[in-house]
Amino acid sequence: GFLLFEPGLLLLTPLMNSFSVKFRCSAELRFQGQTEFVVNESSRAIVRLVVERVGDPINVTALVMLLYHGSDGLTAGTVSRIHVCVFQSSSNGVTVGTPNTATITILSNDNAFGIISFNSTTLITVEEPKGRNQYVPLTLIREKGTYGTVTVNFEISGGPNPASEDLSPDRGNLTIPPGRAVVVFSVLIQDDKIPEDDEIFTVQLTGVAGGALLNPNRTAVQIKISRNDAPVRFSQPSLAVPESVGIINLTVTRGRTEDGLLIGSDDREVSVAYAIVTGNGAASATLSEDFVDLQATRTVLFPRGVHEKVLQFNIVDDRVPEIAESFQVLLLEDTLLGDAVLVYPSFVQVTIEPNDKPYGVLSISSPPPTQPITINEDTTVRFEGITIVRNGGTHGLVSVNWTITRNSTDRTPVTADLFPAFGTLSFTEGQMTAILPLNITQDSLPEEAEAFLLRLIPSSVLGGAEVDEPMGMVFYIQDSDDVYGRFGFHPNETQSIQSRPDVRFLSLSFLREGVTLGEVRLAFTVLYIPAGPLDPARARDGVLNGTSANSVLFSSGQSKVQIILPIRNDAFLQNGAHFLIQLDSLQVINITPLIPSVSPCFGGAVNISLRITPDIANGEIGFTSNQTVVAVEPEESNTSVIILPLRRDGTDGQAVVFWSVRPVGENRADVTKDDLSQFSGSVVFLTGQSEANISITIMADNVPEINETVLLTLDRTNVENQILKPGFTSREIVILENDDPGGVFEFSPVSKGPWFINEGETVELRVIRQQGQLLNQLVRYTVTPSGNEDFYGATGILEFQPGEREVVVALVAIPDGLPEVRFTV
């Protein structure tokens, strides 16, 4: 840098950090003129700052400091501030005035925010996926600087189809955070099932925000989607041929447009199966009688590069007069294999023309006898379901008159139910079908189904056409306005479960509202569901005398039906269980005419549940507790009684519970009839009774006994519909040990003495056990008062094994050599 001095002025370059100048100037220093500067980075950029003085001159040293505000010193976007300070050799009050600070901003430079581009511009070739997602990754690089956050916009164009049909997204933006030099984003290739040739799309970077620039040489990358989804179709949707034609060819194309141009892929094998569809009516051709399929298999196979295949059928020329007959050959989409899609026409209808009828043969398009035309009066205002067809030739304008009459003995005018009742139907040149529209009379009068007869009048034909069978057809207006009634559970009568001493049953009542015409069968299901969630899947069989499926029959004019469903005598009805009654279906019996009916219908709830209460439920019998009972043998000549309560959950009917007692455990052989009574018995529950007791008597004896355990078990009931409660069918009773089972100990009479012995002599003492000898017992003994001072074995423990009655202990007088007088122990 360099300095430029003028009188009273100083010029500073941005390359200096600090410097000093000596003045003989005024007592106040400050910047003069501009103090805010914005400059580009350049070797020719000079910032001129002027320092002026005010006041009398004195000797002053001024220091100018350059301060940086930025992450890398004087770089892109750096803000620098210059401050003036004063050093003086005297204290004469020299000050720094304002402004004493200047700001210099160096603009961003040298691509500090980066140059954005694709890492490669090589053409990317992909294939359209089949039934899955496929992504193409694209990489953006940020060269030069990576300061700040930048946003890059992109857009995809090309085609010829719009990019949004093949790629997703077709436009958007990407955010690159500070310090990030590489960003990868993906473009989804979509399976659009549209026949396409090669498509090239350009992913173009259209703009960038945040200070960065785009590299103009690498702002675009191309994605090529190879041709795909070759269309498979018949060359024509229909074909009419004379019966004498012989062999016909049906062409199936792969990879051709309707105009015959190639499109889509053809470099792989494609196959599709076909089906032959015929009907049962007079206008339907019959396979093997009217035509023959000449293919060995019903599969069309296109080898690689092949665009056409021909299916051949032989039309059988017979001498039977026939109206036009047709059949269809249908390509099956779910059998299509390879890179192809099925497009219209995927079928061809072949019509074998009638013989020598250039103006056509008119007839009614009659449905199969099992599916007659029916009209719902309640929902139909205008009916357009009757079609008159023109088979054979379609030259010229032709017409035919028609009439509708009742196909019954009813004398009511046809127009009371529909109109018009007659008319003329015309066919224009080339027209093959015509609709006969009818208006349906809307009324609120309940009526049964009515039959009508439509007839074409052969003598009325104009234009040279003929009329052939079927020239008459019966159709129906269905029953209306709930003529057979609305059915449900009777709201004023109780649906209930009845229990009597000799029988149990369900009592159900059903109601028929509205019109009661006709005989109607109501089918319903009765399910027994144990206590718990009311889920039909939990239902159990074997409760009713019959099956769960039932029905009742309403006669004509009958509005109420009650039914009794017996419950099996041996069936167990659990407390809290339910009977679920579901209304399933309604059927009119002997309906005339025999067509599907609109009514009857259900009104209101179609299912109810009846809960089994304790007074109806069968008993589930068990102990109130399953804990062990501890008993103490009573004193001699006395007895004690243990009361074990039973509870029955469900109190309908009488029940007898049989029980028994059996010894268990290691000492079960010691239990006898002298210990308790009784060892078996029974308890009777009367109707409505829920509680009863079993009493066990504990008897006294003088026999020593250790703990004795018995198990009291509920064995069975006298009827099958009374069951034992799982987990509460047994009680353990423990009679505690008694009558000193371990024994009573004393010295044997032969050992009681007195004994006279000298020092060094031995005396043997016998200890005997009286009463019980059932347990292993330890007996401690001591010699007093001198004990171990005068005898060996003066203290010890005697062990009696079970069954052992006597144990000997030996005492030896210690020869201590001390003079002693006789003493007693």
Automatic annotation (TrEMBL):
GO terms for biological process: cellular response to calcium ion; sensory perception of sound; visual perception. Gene3D superfamilies: 2.60.40.2030. GO terms for cellular component: cytoplasm; membrane; stereocilium. The keyword Repeat applies. Pfam families: Calx-beta. Residues 102-206, 221-332, 348-457 form the Calx-beta domain. Keywords: Calcium, Repeat, Signal. Residues 1-18 form the signal peptide. InterPro entries: ADGRV1, CalX-like_sf, Calx_beta. SMART domains: Calx_beta (SM00237). One of its GO terms (molecular function) is G-protein alpha-subunit binding. It comes from the Eukaryota. The keyword Cell wall biogenesis/degradation does not apply. This is Adhesion G protein-coupled receptor V1. It comes from Astyanax mexicanus (Blind cave fish).
